[in-house]
Amino acid sequence: MKIALLFAGQGAQYSGMGKDLYDHDPEAEMIFDMAGEDIKSWCFEGTKEMLRQTEITQPSIYTVTMAAYTVFMKEFQTLKQAQNFSDCDSPVEIAALAGFSLGEYAALTAGKSIKDFKTGLEIVKRRGHWMSEAGKGGMVAAMGHRDDILRCVELSREDDVLEGVNFNSPTQTVVAGDRDALIRFMETAKDLGHIKTVMLSVGNAFHSPLMTPVVEKLKALLMTSELNEPAIPIYSNVTTMDIRETIGGGDFYSDGGLERLAQLMADQVNSPVYWEEIINNLKEAGIEAMVEIGPGKTLSGLVKKISHDMITMHVEDVESLGKTMAHLREISCQEVK
Hints:
This protein is α/β, with parallel strands linked by helices and 337 residues long. It folds into two domains: 2-133 and 210-331, 3-Layer(aba) Sandwich (Malonyl-Coenzyme A Acyl Carrier Protein, domain 2); 138-202, Malonyl-CoA ACP transacylase, ACP-binding (Alpha-Beta Plaits), CATH 3.30.70.250. The protein is 51% helix and 15% strand. It has 15 helices and nine strands. The strands form two sheets. Strands 7-2-1-8-9 form a five-stranded parallel beta sheet, with helices on both faces. Strands 4-5-3-6 form a four-stranded antiparallel beta sheet. The two termini are 17 Å apart. The model has no long low-confidence stretch (mean pLDDT 95).
């Protein structure tokens, strides 16, 4: 049975995230200790206002996500060992990874493209700082059909920046750009009557052209970060396909694969996230269940809106880990107890 791991993105944060894992699992505790006292304080005690600050949010969510991934993989290896000693007709296999925006960096770490947690955390810290520095504009969540929302964007842009940037599900698209354009967009949507809008509590226009100043700085950092070719299919936010297909074949280092990967990762900050397409492509690749790793269940909810029959689970604390492992045992090999 093929499963995919999905990694949480910015917006999933909440005060107290990761504390249960830290208190109950020594490997999760080690991840948080490596992250440092500031990040532990932000995750366990941070206020809502504090946690919405991009330079705090990104390293905090990345740390919680990697702690959750670490404890999940420990339990998953136990399940795999049990399957190896059984007559299992449908063993569970992690066949693909995908992360939403920031979550793609957790996916790249899990897929061995970023060599370890410490390296990934440093990249994410710098990414969050640079994206915060580019802080102007905002984002609006729009509920309606994608074509209608994009038509509303065209009617509202005028001479400002305004783009559809997160294609989350068939009925949810996030729009980002200059504040004045966002206000026009919301007014136009109200006049049209079939699009509902909500201004998001962010001070940045993520994945829009307003993030362009971050691209070259991020690429330069990534080029010096000892990246590797992914060891498992990781589906790109930018292309919606396996990153290995995007960066091409040949020798990763001598044939330009490193630069292509760094460029793809850097381009992500000012390119849309095609989440709906990613989930559909994972399903077409034979994925039968998806496990969301990290704080919250936002991605699981989006998956259900995209593919109603997809099995979803999540891991963010000890309780959800137990439920997910029990579910994986149940839906894979009935013989494995």
